[in-house]
Amino acid sequence: MAGAEGFVEADNAGAIITRIEHKSRKIETLLKQYKPVEALKTALEGTYAMTGDERCKSAHWIVVHRAIMAIKDVDGMLSSLDPEYYDILMKYLYRGLATGDRPTCDQCLRIHEKLTEKAGLGCILRFLTDTVNTV
User: Fold this and answer.
1) How far apart, in whole angstroms, are the C-alpha atoms of residue 17 and residue 56?
2) Which of 20, 69, 77, 128 has the fewest Cβ atoms within 10 angstroms?
3) d(CA 35, CA 40)
């Protein structure tokens, strides 16, 4: 399941960042092959929400952000995305909205609307009540 790696201590941050860099290269390859949905799935797999290290969270946000911004067909993306990714995607959408960057907010709102239609309000409520697994 996405994000089910357990809590990671800060002393493992270097190893996590190395894995994120590897993931970033894989995502760039997928995007060059015009596979944005696969890039998003890859970005959301093994998310590092359980780490308290802000460097890891920021590095992973950059990777997820790149994949989110490449999505053109939101309906197509959601139809091919497994429901297990809905909650973690919602967390990253709210992180994107918190940036205040206009293009990022516009894209996050487009996806948020469709994701809420597909996953229901429970997805938002789980994001709001989960204060431990922040992204």
Assistant:
1) 6
2) 128
3) 9
Select from 101, 102, 121, 110 the least CA-distant residue to 78.
110
pLDDT digits (tens, 9 = 90+) for 20-53: 999 999 999 999 999 999 999 999 987 655 577 8
Cα distances (Å, whole numbers) of residue 120 to 117, 125, 126: 6, 9, 11
Residue 68: pLDDT over 70: yes
76, 37 Cβ separation under 8 angstroms: yes
From the number of C-beta atoms within 10 Å of its C-beta (0-12, 13-18, 19+), residue 49 rates as buried
Token code pair at residue 28: 């760039």
Per-residue pLDDT reduced to its tens digit, 82-94: 999 999 999 999 9
